Every structure is written in structure tokens, then in C-alpha cells.
Amino acid sequence: CGTLLILDHNESGLRIFRSFDWTDALFDVTWSENNEHVLVTCSGDGSLQLWDTAGAAGPLQVYKEHTQEVYSVDWSQTRGEQLVVSGSWDQTVKLWDPTVGRSLCTFKGHESIIYSTIWSPHIPGCFASASGDQTLRIWDVKTTGVRIVVPAHQAEILSCDWCKYNENLLVTGAVDCSLRGWDLRNVRQPVFELLGHTYAIRRVKFSPFYASVLASCSYDFTVRFWNFSKPNPLLETVEHHTEFTCGLDLSLQSPTQVADCAWDETIKIYDPVCLTMPA
């Protein structure tokens, strides 16, 4: 079974604000961009769930179309559209309008499990997906087809993210322990490669505040902070988990605040030293 925990963070620490149960494992969660009480989760039974933290104990809606585990879900960030994208082990990506009870369309092309689906923060109707087929793909909702296919690693790609300051720049993290940056105007070679993790990279996130800073977490139990514009890009390694580190995000409100979580069943919110010093 899976649980969605809504946590409140204040001066006295973390407290559980609300919790919701589901009948299968929950793999990802995304906040609504137009209602602070609404979230969407995705689960191992192939469904997406729409929750209201201010209301009912159960989900407001359940969308069940994927035929295998749904591993990734993301709510669009550009104004003028409220769309959710989901990526599944069934090798498809589906597009949803949360007010409509069924998917708007299905994107096919990946040849293996899809681990990550992320909307562009810059380009309306554009999202990226990362897969076990070793490719990063860029899609356009309007054409329902793939725009760009990047053979980004010679290994499964578990995570990708868009730079918040450059609409052409993405980063991928893979089972080969490397992070690679990609400029969509020329994808023949990565624009940077970051090495240091010793096991698969589970999640990577660009900073919302610093154009060349990103964070990654790995099955090597660490979270690492990088500045890809520096000759020595590794800024800091944080080792405060005793198991695989699997979740990671950077605060949109605070330039220094980071949240992560691991298989050791703990969630940590902290301010790494490298982000509290001037960049």
C-alpha cells in the first residue's frame, strides 16, 4: 500500500499535516499550479489520483489508463494551460487535463520503461521524458509527436530536468553514475558531464535561483550539489541517509532550502553549506 503525506515545515520542525492512503505504491507526486490544496499522485496499479488536502479522505478523481506502473507525474508550469503529463512502465506518456476524466492523448516512441516526464518551464506544451531505452526525448503536445531524440547515455536514464534560466538546456542522470547537460540546439555532444556518484543517479534538479547550480541524489546514499560552470563543479556532498537516496527537490521560496528522502524512511529538510555562501 502507498501513503501520501502532506508535511508542514516550521520553526519547530516537520509535522504531518494530512495523510492519505492508496491501495498500491505511490511513485511520484506533483502539486497543482492553480490550487494550493490539490495534488496528483501516480501509482503501481497504473492509475493517477487527484487529491484535495482541504477536503475528502479519498481521491477526488482516479484516472486509470496506463497498463503498468506509473513512475512519473508532472503538472505544467506555463500560464494558460493546466495539463498533467504521466510516464509509465508501459512505455507510453499520457497527457491529462485534470478536469477531464480521461487522457487527452498518448505519446508513443520509447522502447523501454519511462522513468521521468518533466514539463518545460519556458515553452508551453513542451515536455521531456527519460527512459530505460537510454534516450532523452522532447515532445510537443500540439503535434503529439517527438521533436528531438537524444541518445544521452549508454545506460538507463532515471531522471531529467530543465534549466530554469535557459530554455534549451536539460540535464540527465543515469545508471552509469553520470550527469550530462544537453543543449537542444546541438545534441551531438553533452555540454557538460558531471562525475562523482558511485551508483545510479535517481533524481536530478536544477536550482530555481542559480542558473548553473543543480543537485542530484543517488543510490550511493549521497546528495551532491554542482556548479557546472566551474572548473571543479562539485560544490558539496551530503551524506545524511543510511539507504538509497531517491527523492530530491529545491525550494521555490528559499534559495538555500533543500528537501530529500531515502529508503531509510526519513525525509530531511536542510540548508547545504554551498547554497548559504555567495555563489
From TrEMBL:
Pfam families xref list: WD40 (PF00400)
Gene Ontology process terms (BP): protein import into peroxisome matrix
Domain of life of the organism encoding this protein: Eukaryota
Compartment(s): Cytoplasm, Cytosol; Peroxisome matrix
GO cellular component: cytosol; peroxisomal matrix
Keywords (A to Z) from UniProt: Cytoplasm, Peroxisome, Protein transport, Repeat, Transport, WD repeat
Entry's Gene Ontology molecular function annotations: peroxisome matrix targeting signal-2 binding
PROSITE patterns assigned: WD_REPEATS_1, WD_REPEATS_2, WD_REPEATS_REGION
InterPro entries: PEX7, WD40/YVTN_repeat-like_dom_sf, WD40_PAC1, WD40_repeat_CS, WD40_repeat_dom_sf, WD40_rpt
WD repeats: 63-106, 107-143, 150-186, 194-236
Similarity-based family: Belongs to the WD repeat peroxin-7 family.
Record's protein name: Peroxin-7
Organism expressing this protein natively: Sus scrofa (Pig)
Lineage start: Eukaryota, Metazoa, Chordata, Craniata, Vertebrata
Gene transcribed to yield this protein: PEX7
